[in-house]
Amino acid sequence: MDPNKPPYLPRPPGVPDVPVARGRGLHADESLLGRARGLGVSADEPSVGRARGLAVVLEEPWVGRARGLARIADEPSVGRARGLARIADEPSVGRARGLARIADEPSVGRARGLARIADEPSVGRARGLAVVLEEPWVGRARGLARIADEPSVGRARGLARIADEPSVGRARGLAVVLEEPWVGRARGLARIADEPSVGRALGLAQIADEPSVGRARGLAVALEEPWVALAEPVAGTGRGLASTALDALLFPYVRGSPGLGRYKPLSVAQGMEEEEGGRIGRARGLLHTSQEPVAGKGRSTALFLKESEPLGKSEHVDTSEVIPCLQEEEPPKVQADDPGPGSFLLSMFRGMGIEQGRPWGRGAATLGRGAVGEHKDVQSVVPPVVSAASEAGDAHYYAGGFAGRGLSGVGKAVGFPAGRGSGAPLIPKEIPVTPAVRPPKAEPKMEAGGKPLQKVGTMGHPVSIASNYVPIRCRNEAVFQYHVVFTPNVESVSMRFGMMKDHRSTTGDIMAFDGSILYLPKRLEEVVHLKAERKTDNREIDIKIQMTKILPPHSDLCIPFYNVVLRRVMKILGLNLIGRNHYDPRSAVVLSKHRLQVWPGYSTAIKHTDGGLYLAVDISHKVLRNDSVLDVMNEIYQQSRESFKDECTKELIGSIVITRYNNRTYRIDDIEWDKSPKHSFTMADGSETTFVDYYRKNYGITVKELDQPLLVHRPKERSKPGGKDLTMHINVSVEQHTHSLKQLLHNISTSQEAVKELSRWGLEISSDILVTQGRTLPMETICLQSATFVTSPTVDWSREVVRDSSISCIPLDRWVVFYPRRAADQAEELVSTFGKVAGPMGLRLARPVCVELRDDRTETYVKTIQSQLSSEPNVQLVVCIVTGNRDDLYSAIKKLCCVQSPCPSQVINVRTISQPQKLRSVAQKILLQMNCKLGGELWTVHVPLKHLMVIGVDVHHDTSKKTQSVMGFVASLNSLMTKWYSRVTFQMPNEEIINGFRVCLLAALQKYYEVNHSFPEKIVIYRDGVSDGQLKTVELYEIPQILKCFETFPNYEPKLVFIVVQKRINTTLYAFGGNRFGTPPPGTVLDHTVTNGEWVDFFLMAHSIRQGCGFPTHYISIYNTANLTPDHLQRLTFKMCHLYWNWPGTIRVPAPCKYAHKLAYLSAQFLHSEPAIQLCDKLYFL
């Protein structure tokens, strides 16, 4: 048996399965059961459950020793407590510490400080027990049953004295003497045949035909065994144990049971009938409070309070249908006098950290935690009842208990301080029939306690804002969703539509179908089977329609259905669906000279926002070629027959093609020259068919050119868009944009068929776009070295930044300029202009070393630069002047200067410096860029938050390795936001981004400490490249991993704000006034109506727009422990948009995000490896 896996024992019929908690198995011939910590292995002797601190007894059986005991020869020693004196010729079993010697009596397990009781075997008394005459057994140890005519075995601490009864009281982990009843075995004891097994600990074997009463955690009951359940109030039940009063009430779970949960009545020996108030299995060592009988609260159990004192409460638990429980009975109250100042009990509990008046039974560690999460001991509401399943080692409970987790290893005699309980309350007033558990909720977002999110700011000036959102009203009561399966499979979606139309008598005239999901306003049978015939091969198709959901009209699950209805409306208007957008081929603009045509169209999406249901509409254009791929191949063949395949590869690989039979676009990844449409392939069902037959059967297309090669498209995982996408936004004016939107709404409202289709589903689209109120944030102040100024309405300070000195300028003393021979004049003119404009900008330039190259080959550049850097290792900057747009040369230079020989570099195209009238302005911008790359600081804005770190993260795909992506990471290092730390990590598709992020974050925190001699108190992360569908993943996975990074540094718990940045959105903003639409000013923010109801989010347009519409950026705060208000988030984000030093103005995204994008792009497109660490504190990638 695997000692790490719990055994599963048989259970009686009708009783739920209870997994056994972890226990340690038996070793052959040497049963090392229940050893405490630090015991040595005794030779040839079973060491069972030793208690801590026992003395050495010669010639005695040593069973259940505590830790640190010496080896006893040839005799087992059973359960002596620490500090016992030697008893001659007597079996000393389980004495507690500090007991006096009792002559001629077996002194077994007495607690410390007990008085001598004459003529009675004092076995197992707990410490500090009061004497109660003629009283039932109160406070027995965990899991002991009532035994007739037997000594009282297993009393716990705090037991009352019982006259005329032997007090046996074995401690935890003690073995029992043969020929004695096995009562209250400790954890991990072996099975003894022919003995009643009462209160077994975990890991014991099943004993048939024995009464199993009060077993410890997770043991199932034996067949034909009494099942002890919750028939009575249990004061101090042990872990997972219940109590019974031997009543005759019925329990509905067990057929024919006379008692609650009992399989058959317990047998009670003659003369030992159960007395009133008798209790089984009370926990040890608990004290009562002055007002309530809180006696004996055990781990993972509850106690009965007064009727007016409700039991505890568990969070995130569903209640279900309940049945009445048995009448509760109060446990007997424990009477105790108030101990005086000199009381031994008071001194003892003060030594344990418990003061008088403290509510005992509370405040322990979170033990007894089950799958439902953490539960407290005493709450104010009756707990809902759950059935929780957890990992191995977590027990279940029946009829009102919570799962309790194992606390220690086998035989460890480690307990809690007296009176301390843990776990959750037990025994509710009602028992559920079908309990259920709700998964625990994730960490709170910005607001806690279920309050509405405070997401609307107040700073700035109000302004009327219009948007491309159109209100939608929904008057439907319910929508029925069905899943449709075609057998055998039908690939063509149009064929599926046709087959469904043939069965309108069943589905009705009103339906929405996307190929697999069917939406109807009427309810069908649960499963409907229909028959259809495929016209291409006359094969019979079975159609299975199965109902999956009933959707309320305003459910988020209805959004896909509403979009299906919208696609039908767009089709009614004559628009073709290509990709995700709809285009109008009737209004196509043909450019014959270029063999192109432009289709105008719309991108549409129905969204559920804070303001309700809206239709988001935007303008889109599709640019198509008039000729086919085969036409392009024929033309290439006519021009270059010898290199036909190579030219086709260069021309076609990476292009986007559209297939007219399904209006889908594909990227050409490869060309299969050795295959043709006559080749066969394997279908999903295992059958083989040729491409010719496939297109004929599924799309009704006859392929004429049978010898043409095949184009290969490799599907990719969903990621952010990339590549040569033919879809683009035409930069039309605001008036043209709004006119197109209104024209679409007019077409919908005037089309009777479209209106009828919408009304069938209870939808009504407004004829006007949304007009609401936004705000414009205050303009920021730009700070230079000795000058400050407020930005203009156009947020452009290109003149000021070259007129005054930057914050810090790095003297450029050793730099080299490389240029080809034919660009010598331009190079000399550029260096001369540098000297003229550097002074006013605060830059100090020395004369560079000019190196003329004999040609402009890549090898010439690389070898010459390597030679120069080797001869002069202290070069500060490398400037290369190149001719033409040559990515191979640019990549070679950057790879050399960023990876192999780290040195900041500047590559300048000769065309940029060929116009004399613009040379001065160009030289000024280049000098600013060069100063950044050397570590200089250009400008900043005032950020009032102190000890703040701002981080930007973006991801780009590596062009050389299609399966690899690159993450750029940039973090601020000072309060001025002028020092930055950058890193790059490469990762595979299945690798989480957080793995590389963790390395970068720890390195940035260490660098921040080196610069500031302290860690940042607040960290704001701007994360780019996250879609709406990934927000929950980031919240539940990435953020907890980030928080774990902080644990690397002792006592470091910074405040964290995590903001997702989305710039590829379809939201458009317009300034509205006087019934006219215009371009909104920079700093326009909209934080209501069109925002997401689940998050604190806002739309900000930080940049200036000279022509066209305003495309804002969407910011979503998914984590905020810094308690930054919406105003703080919006102002901080707007400030960060001012700090991109490659542009003297505001940009669409915060500067750290833009820096991270530039770094990731450089590494993925040109470097294909991680840059040298020596450059991490410079903006070398600008």
Task: Write structural notes for this entry.
- The protein has a twelve-stranded mixed β-sheet, sandwiched between helices. Strands 10, 16, 17, 18, 19, 20, 27 and 28 form an eight-stranded antiparallel β-sheet that branches. A five-stranded antiparallel β-sheet has the order 12-13-11-15-14, sandwiched between helices.
- Among the domains are: 32-110, no CATH class; 479-551, Alpha-Beta Plaits, CATH 3.30.70; 627-722, paz domain, CATH 2.170.260; 803-938, Rossmann fold, CATH 3.40.50; 941-1168, Nucleotidyltransferase, domain 5, CATH 3.30.420.
- The chain contains 18 helices and 46 strands.
- By secondary structure, it is an alpha+beta fold.
- Helices cover 19% and strands 20% of the residues.
Which descriptors apply to this entry?
Alpha-Beta Plaits; 1182 residues; 19% helix; 8-stranded antiparallel beta sheet; alpha+beta; 46 strands; endonuclease activity; 18 helices; paz domain
Q: What's the SSE blueprint?
A:
Layout: E1 49-51, E2 64-66, E3 182-183, E4 197-198, E5 317-318, E6 322-324, H1 344-351, E7 430-432, E8 436-437, E9 461-467, E10 469-474, E11 479-487, H2 493-501, H3 504-507, E12 512-513, E13 517-520, E14 527-534, E15 539-551, H4 558-572, E16 576-578, E17 581-583, E18 589-591, E19 596-609, E20 612-625, H5 629-639, H6 644-652, E21 656-659, E22 664-667, E23 670-672, E24 680-682, E25 688-690, H7 691-699, E26 710-712, E27 727-728, H8 734-750, H9 752-760, E28 763-765, E29 771-776, E30 781-783, E31 788-790, H10 798-803, E32 815-820, H11 824-838, E33 849-853, H12 858-871, E34 877-882, H13 887-900, E35 905-909, H14 916-934, E36 940-941, E37 948-957, E38 965-972, E39 980-987, H15 993-1012, E40 1018-1024, H16 1031-1046, E41 1055-1062, E42 1069-1073, E43 1076-1078, E44 1084-1086, E45 1096-1101, E46 1113-1120, H17 1126-1136, H18 1151-1167
Parallel strand pairs: 1-2, 3-4, 32-33, 32-34, 34-35, 37-40, 40-41
Antiparallel strand pairs: 5-8, 6-7, 9-29, 9-42, 10-20, 10-28, 11-13, 11-15, 12-13, 14-15, 16-17, 17-19, 18-19, 19-20, 20-27, 21-22, 23-26, 24-25, 29-44, 30-31, 30-36, 37-38, 38-39, 41-46, 42-43, 44-45, 45-46
Domain Piwi: 877-1168
Biased composition (Pro residues): 1-16
Region (Disordered): 1-23, 427-454
